[in-house]
UniProtKB/TrEMBL annotation:
Monomer. InterPro entries: Adenokinase, Carboh/pur_kinase_PfkB_CS, PfkB_dom, Ribokinase-like. One of its GO terms (biological process) is purine ribonucleoside salvage. The keyword Metal-binding does not apply. This is Adenosine kinase. The gene is Dmoj\GI13634. Its EC number is 2.7.1.20. Gene3D superfamilies: 3.30.1110.10, 3.40.1190.20. ATP dependent phosphorylation of adenosine and other related nucleoside analogs to monophosphate derivatives. It holds the Pfam family PfkB. Binds 3 Mg(2+) ions per subunit. It comes from Drosophila mojavensis. PANTHER family: ADENOSINE KINASE. Keywords: ATP-binding, Kinase, Magnesium, Nucleotide-binding, Nucleus, Purine salvage, Transferase.
Amino acid sequence: MTSKLQEGILVGCGNPLLDISAPVPLQFLEGYGMNVDDAILAEERHMPIYRELVDGYQAEYLAGGSVQNSLRIAQWILRQPNVAVFFGCVGQDDYADILREKARAAGVDAHYQVSPDTPTGTCAVLITGTHRSLCANLAAANKFTIDHLEQPANKALIDNAQYYYISGFFLTVNPPSIMRVAATANAKQRPFLMNLSAPFISQYFMEPLMAVMPYVDIIFGNEAEAHAFATAQGWPADADLREIGKRLVALPKINSERPRIAILTQGCDPVLLIQHDKVQEFPVTRLAVHEIVDTNGAGDAFVGGFLSQYVQGKSLDVCIRCGNYAAGHIIKNPGCTYSGEPEFNE
């Protein structure tokens, strides 16, 4: 960190979830009809999963939710509190208190809406070897309403921000809030960044996703998410990630002065940066198998690392290198957690 940043320069909206994370056998996943590396919303049949993890396995509680994770990582690298502001909805319970405390400790300025009659959302993080599967019970996170953003203090925070980041996961909760933030970013000519988040978003929430896409300046996604988007769009089945990226950036955009950028990750293969018709590759440092604790939060960490440099006005290649650094660090720790001081050098 060189110069001090304005507080509240970055605003994120998402689903604050308390991660309940534990190593489990594959049979545990099978018992709930889940696959390795799944990212799903809990249905009725999944509801016992949280209690079972706490009672029967060595579960730990971690502050979670994709956007909140990314903001925590950005704050860790920036080493200056309250650069990032987070909006989401929690319940009135112990889990909300844990989330508040974890957000504050990480330097994130969380402004939670509180739903008094709904429990705070939870996410089962099921670790099988180096894989992780997610089952989110949004609960209170689902209760977020645009009224919260319209409160004068919160509206001021949104108006004063310079950068905006929202996950595709939030499309399942409150599209009007996303459109409000996107319109504010556009009116003020400030960057609006979004994440494809999970294949099911493209499969089931394409309409709200396409409504907000014209506002999106930078879109993030991994290969599975990008392919799911391409399939839902009816793009050629043999389109590779580069072709999908080029099509993503070519989708209609309101502010044509600022062409869209796509940043697509593919595990240990190079990150693709797609601008105009040009694709650049950024190599990822491969970790030895024994260094990998679990991949949970690697994508969130990548975005967090990226954002930490982007809000300082750094070039895209520095932003992506920091994203790769952050993802590599997180993979060596359980869940979306970090240890020690950040050691990113441009």
